[in-house]
Amino acid sequence: MRKNIVAGNWKMNKTLQEGLALATELNEALAGAKLNCDVVIGTPFIHLASVVAAVDTKVIGVAAQNCANKESGAYTGEISASMVKSTGAEYVILGHSERREYYGETSAILNEKVALTLANGLTPIYCCGEALDVRNANEQNAFVKNQLDETVFNLSADDFKKIVIAYEPIWAIGTGVTASTEQAQDTLAFIRSAIAAKFGQEIADGTSILYGGSCNAKNAPELFAQPDIDGGLIGGASLKVADFKAIIDAF
Ligand code: PEP
After folding, report:
1. Is 168 a catalytic residue?
2. 5-248 adopts what CATH topology?
3. Which of 108, 143, 168, 186 is deepest in the core (most CB within 10 A)?
């Protein structure tokens, strides 16, 4: 079901104690507030169970930032989707450009991760987005479409309905350079049209598509006012409650 969502991605930041303090402060800031979006925080694995216990999960959903592409067994250091589920987390961020770039995540690996996430009743927040050279060549639509074709467009319509898409141009992540409102809207509209072509208009209209990349309190109101932008995946600005709350309040 299409919803407005503001999702934080803490990346590899915050000790357990710092993360718990951040989650508790956010929980207090949102208690009793009238919210026009779902709020999610993507924490490191080791924080998940403690953060779930510390927040009102009816107000703040908790996400892992990754999961293994294997179900269980001799995969030292990996964390399975069922382990994520057992913490009470509800979402898994998958396909973030940092994981694709630094950890070699291919479409084949991501297909396995998406399948395991869905099989464990978790919601994938599936990231896609192009690098600067692709944008400069004006080939972003074909690039993103290919990322989707190789992965989540292989899902059944019933499974596709369960996922959230996050469009994150790599050149805008952590750089302070936000895609212009027009660039973000145009690409999200393109993604929605590609979903419609693949799964039909009803499913396209029901899919939450987020923008990510240097989103902040200043640019969020204009971005979130666009017809195809259903919220944001927020990195740096999710690490301070005042900044994150201001983005939440942009809805
Ligand atoms: C991200 O990493 O998903 C992200 C959007 O980061 P930032 O908001 O810091 O650009």
Report:
1. yes
2. TIM Barrel (3.20.20)
3. 168
